[in-house]
Amino acid sequence: MKKKVNFLAILTFYVIAIACRYLATKTNLLEAVSNDFLKVVLRGIGPAVGALVVFKVFNIKPVLSLKGNYKKLLFPVLLYWVFPIALICGAAYFTNGTIPVVGVFAVLVYGLMEEIGWRGFLQQELKSLPPFLGILVIATLWFLWHLNFSLTTSNFVFFGILILGTWGIGKVADTTQSLLAVAAVHSLNNFFSELNNTKIIILVVLLAVWIVSLVIRKRMSKAKTGEVALS
User: Which domain holds residue 93?
Assistant: First the structure.
């Protein structure tokens, strides 16, 4: 029996997410914050706050966690956070002589704040819907959350990217159940919004390593399921 969609929980989550986003980006509230890292995080904190509230109020048990279905937290930390930070900072050092550790970490944390809501709560709450409908609903709410309603070509392209991202990040969430993994994949768009040769190489390396690791993990999971069924 499929779980019923809790529309009140979704509404509560989304109102909180939108309110936080509006306060952070459409008002002068963050002008009092001098720390750039904190400013970045606060712009994306709404989905996390909304999710944590509905988890508590509606007694919903989160499916995703930082560790996910890995045996130890260290592995997703190294693969999805330390690896991209080292790769991006290393490339920046050799090309520009800078090491933007704080900036890269801020983008990852920003992605994590969003993913606690979009994949950690909303995707799980909409599991009973047909897959494409669930993807379309999440992508639409995600798009509207950005509070950018201009009818421009770039916005239509952005909506298409969000549909593709909702599908792809959703697959990562289902395979790993790790918030660190989905936050890292989410952050690719922010890391590489403007591409050059160096960034393309980094992007290809990251995607190649992550996709191979996900394929291996999925096969291992199927093998374990088969062993359980036979025993």
Answer: 64-230
| Residue whose pair of structure tokens reads 């509606």 in the numeric block | 58
Per-residue tokens: 56? 């508590």
- Residue closest to 146 by CA, chosen among 135, 155, 137: 155
Q: What is the pLDDT of residue 227?
A: 55
- Residue 178: what are its φ and ψ, rounded to 5°? -110, 125
Over the stretch 94-146, which tens digit does the pLDDT of each residue have? 998 989 999 999 999 999 999 999 999 999 999 999 999 999 999 999 999 99
What does the block give as tokens for 60?
């919903």
SS percent in the chain: helix, strand, coil, step 5: 75, 0, 25
List pLDDT tens digits, range 171-200: 999 999 999 999 999 999 888 878 889 999
Angstrom distance (rounded) from CA 21 to CA 149: 14
149 within some domain: yes
Tell me if 82 is assigned to some domain. yes
d(CA 168, CA 157): 16
Do 111 and 173 contact (CB within 8 A), yes or no?
no
Torsion over CA: 124, 129, 135, 138 (sign): negative
| Residue 213 lies inside a defined structural domain of this protein | yes
Domain count, the chain: 1
12 is a domain residue: no
